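Issue: ligand-bound run for beta-D-galactopyranose - logging full I/O for the record.

Environment: standard queue, default settings, no custom constraints.

Inputs:
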Amino acid sequence: MELRMLKWTWPFLLFGVAQWPVVTNGLRNGLALTPPMGWLHWERFLCETDCEKEPYTCVSERLFMEMADVMVYQGWLDAGYQYLCIDDCWLAPKRDAQNRLQADPVRFPSGIKKLADYVHARGLRLGIYQDVGKQTCAGFPGSQNYYELDAQTFSEWEVDLLKFDGCYYGTLEQLEDGYRRMSMALNRTGRNIVLSCEWPLYARPLKKVNYSEVAEYCNSWRNFGDISDSWSSVKSVLDWTAVLQDSLVPAAGPGAWNDPDMLVIGNFGLSWDQQVTQMALWCIMAAPLLMSNDLREISAESKALLQNKEVIAINQDCLGAQGYRILKVDSFELWEKPLFGGSLAVSVTNRNEIGGPRRFLLSRIMLWKGTACGDVCYVTQLLPTRKEYGYFNTTGILSLSVNPSGTVLLRID
Ligand code: GAL
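Outputs:
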């Protein structure tokens, strides 16, 4: 499983000035070679623990079993969404007599191992949540002082992914040491467990984050606060990512991903165009695609967007390069993501929230010169609707109509 991870650094701001690829060490567990895809309960279901009052939406084994069934029967697994992930609030208020973690006995009467069996029998993988500190963010027992034991427990339960939060961590040293220790403890179990961290989010106020170190211990990591079901939240994630892209983009690659948090498509807060923008930009950013929505009652439109195979292919491209913003002009944003074999994904977002669709004139010289297609590239629009633009030569100009707060996503081969 010892893989040498190839990481690439890509050009920023200056058109066509490519840096050479550099080799760094990602977490050497051979996992998450493309961004993890799946479902995570937090944004939609939060910490509802009253199953008498809210049997349909409380954090319980019933919720995860129902979601597992839908993921298989409604095409989510086929589209690539494989990890079914439990977030905070699954735990009983106390560890057991041997100090082992235990699931809440009322809400998870069969226990996590049985849930893992249920999930695995359907071809899915199970994710779970814990915290590097004394308590989880919602106040359940944390892993501090128990890293080895908890890693062992997760491995025995046959868990496949751990989201490791950073609340109540103590000192910066304890925070960083805790992430290192848990990562090593998981490796020692011998089980393939993807590690999703929040280390940079908690460390950033205290120090300059060393991303090559974070990438040595984590398969993905959160940089910013929690996403919510709103356009302002999605915009702030995009803005922060663009501001910090010089440090974030070079750190990403197979096995190691920046995590801008969950997809909230299919909920209540985003218009259709804003959902298109979240999907397009999360794919451009090579973000983990972890949906937090109710798959039992999602609209056909949102489902088609989330299951769009050509769009997902941009995210899952095996080169593993994170895209970046190359231009911000006249309320338009232009981002690009290099793809395997010299292809390119390009997005144009209209950040105006007033007026109607606006035209953006895209010319080849705005884009990275390294696209292998040379003089003539073939352009396909993937979002908001599929459309073939045909060949695009070096002097050609594409006239794109972009809705307010919407995005046009192109693939250039
Ligand atoms: C936050 C974390 C969220 C969610 C929540 C649970 O710190 O960023 O994604 O896991 O804790 O309490």
